[in-house]
């Protein structure tokens, strides 16, 4: 081919591409992904090793003759990419997603329509559109002039003449079924001119004939990318669907939409497939994208599109968006509105309780009219719809109006309290068969019930409960609600009994029936209805709670406690033994409690989970559960069932519900402490009290409780704890007194004197301290080998007298003085103070407090003195006079 012939080829091709639109992203990406391929050797199967060759083809020879042709025909060579692409294509090693990735294409056509506005944006004024169009036109013209001036060259898509001949020969070989030769020729064309779609199309047809569908589809996809034709993408989408690859079909429809966005069939097909895949959001974007291409004469498509958008919004609970879509379509295409469209619109409006708007829609699109008297039409139209309903005497409904729309009209009228004009419509519906239209009966009955007009709902429900199809628990439940609302309790109880019989798991019906039976005075029946068998059915918490309340009201304490325990097992930890109780106390974090219990049970080889029953239904409000728990604990305390009280309070420590609240958690800790004290579990009580004292060292009540626990404890763990605490709080009087008590009990009187004296210096007005000092000196004087007993007794008397001065002459102080002299064997002084104690007034004790009267103790000690001295008559006299059994 000479130089003149090359110029003629360019003249045939360049002019054509001067008129084409740019393909900026698709083709450049494709050219980068499919570089120049040169065949070095070709095997028998048509595919050989590929590499860079000097090339001796006709196209290469032509390229050497002119520099311009060389720029337009050659491409950058990347040997590695060449071999990778061809090998994958020929061995089925390349999937569709990989092809799309190598071509740099995004499978989601919505990526460029995210900023698409709603339908209202397309309704701007004609002047704005004209101004925008002129602006865009001028910018486009300037852009085209700039491109021409810059000398930018475009890629040529049509094959040169030499390669056209080779491509024609390949097509002839394909027609003669000489597939291997045709494949070799196509690959040679691809090697020299890779951005032409023709060889890929031929390869796709060849592999389709060879039943290699996947490979055929891959080559056809590449051809479609190189020549973006909407029909080609449509065929590929159908082929993908035939293979069952819905996602690939979605991609193909997206490319078809880009090639021809005016074809709404492509949009519908793609959005329908997206809905099948569950991609509701992408489908919604696709529907919204369609709005740009709707014309005013496409009202049918516009309403169909609005319905699809509304359905997706309705499923997503975006009711207001669904309504906006339908309202816009109704305003833009009112002449295309169908009864199905009206029905969907009414459902959306009723979900928003826009009943007046429902009536407006039916008046506008259903030929419904409000009839009136004593008014002209002009006067009537001046009223708002709400006022029109109040003066209207009748509602005219066309005979051809669908019964569903007529029912919705009736429901809307009932909700706006237009009972008079809705009554004829209800009667008209009741002429229909309840077996066939029972659901419409129910809709109207529910409307009456929501409007608190239960008397009108009963005639609609009675035929349903006697029918075959609607004799179900839900209808009986509504029937019972209506009867209970009009105070027909006996009939309501029968209706609810039928509900419980048809649906035993319906907890609300059982609760209501139980309440009705209580109001009728049938408490045994009320309890029987709430009875549940944990081994046969899941337990409903609400039923259990209601049963607990009834049992408590009837003073059935044992049954109440059992029912309450069953209720709390839903979130309490069941404490099996003492080790688990200790694990609950030693761990403060709730998760650590559960982990410690699991580890403990695992180490013992026990079942990790408790055999607790299954629970169902909504949980009882936390405040009501707490009140019930406190009530149960109080009853256990009153009944003296301290072991059960301790177990329940320890179980509550593992409650995820109660322990969330810090105030309740502190309350439960204190209840555990009290339960341990009452149950004489001094070991656990000391563990709890130790933490309380550490956190509240200034609280005297904490020290009093600790002293109480220590006095009942069987061990001496507290000694070291108190000594360690002394180093942190050396000025605490209560702590010094407890250390003094420990030393006094241990017989180390000198240490106890040191502690008491330090406390006396800090708090000289406390009468307890001189009493303890006097008693310590008394114990020291009574020791067998103590020296200077006279001095010790004198000091004891001095401190005891100080105590009496601070405390005053009362039964307590006189008894303590007598008891000290009694221990010192100073019997006359002891008798003197004992008699003064008997002569003192008895202190009044609080009803809930301990007995503070020391009369019997004093009389008994006196009788011992007289009995030891031989005065048995005096001893008997004091015994008979003051001590009565």
Automatic annotation (TrEMBL):
Biased composition range(s): Acidic residues: 64-73
Organism lineage: Eukaryota, Metazoa, Ecdysozoa, Arthropoda, Crustacea
TPR repeats: 230-263, 473-506
NADP is among the record's keywords: no
GO cellular component assignments: transcription factor TFIIIC complex
GO BP, sorted A to Z: transcription by RNA polymerase III
Gene3D superfamilies assigned: Tetratricopeptide repeat domain
UniProt keyword DNA-binding, yes or no: no
Superkingdom per UniProt: Eukaryota
Pfam annotation, one family: TPR_19
Ranges of compositional bias, category Basic residues: 144-157
Keyword vocabulary terms for this entry: TPR repeat
UniProt-recorded name of the protein: General transcription factor IIIC, polypeptide 3
Region of interest (Disordered), ranges: 47-76, 135-157
Encoding gene, per UniProt annotation: GTF3C3
